[in-house]
Amino acid sequence: MKTLIIYDSAYNNTEKIALAVGKAITGEVKVAKIDKLNNSDLEGLDLLIVGAPTYGGRPTPPIISFLDSIPNNLVKGLKVAAFDTRLSTRLVKVFGYAAPKIAGKLKNKGGIPVLPPEGFFVKATEGPLKDSELERAAAWAKTIW
Length: 145
Fold this sequence. Notes:
This protein is α/β, with parallel strands linked by helices and about 140 residues long. The chain contains six helices and six strands. Strands 1, 2, 3, 4, 5 and 6 form a six-stranded parallel β-sheet that branches. Strand 1, helix 1 and strand 2 (about 30-35) form a beta-alpha-beta unit.
C-alpha cells in the first residue's frame, strides 16, 4: 500500500500529528509538508491523507489551493482521509473545522473516504497538543485498513 500524507503546520502541531499517523500506517508511507510536495508524489497512490490546522473554520490557504488545483483524475477512486488540529473552544465550533472541509473537497473530486474526518486538539493556538493526542492519532490511523 502506497500512502501519502500531506499537511500544513504553523506551529508544528499538525506536523506532529501527520508524523504519528505516518508511523502507524504500514506499507510505503511518505509524509510531506505542502510546500515540499512534488507532483510525482501524487502518482500511484492507494491512500491520500490531508491534514491542516483550523484557521477561521477552514484549512490553511496552501491546503485549500492544493485541493482546488489537483486534477479530479488523480483523486477519483482513491481512498482518502482528512484530519485537522483545533482548539476545543466554543467560538471555534461556531465557524467549524478544517477536516470536514478537506474531506468534502476530496470527496467532490471523486475520492473515497475511508473514515470520517478527525480533529486533534491543541491547548492553545500555538499548542502544544493536548495530552495523548499523538497516541489518538496513531490509533485513528490504524483503523484505516
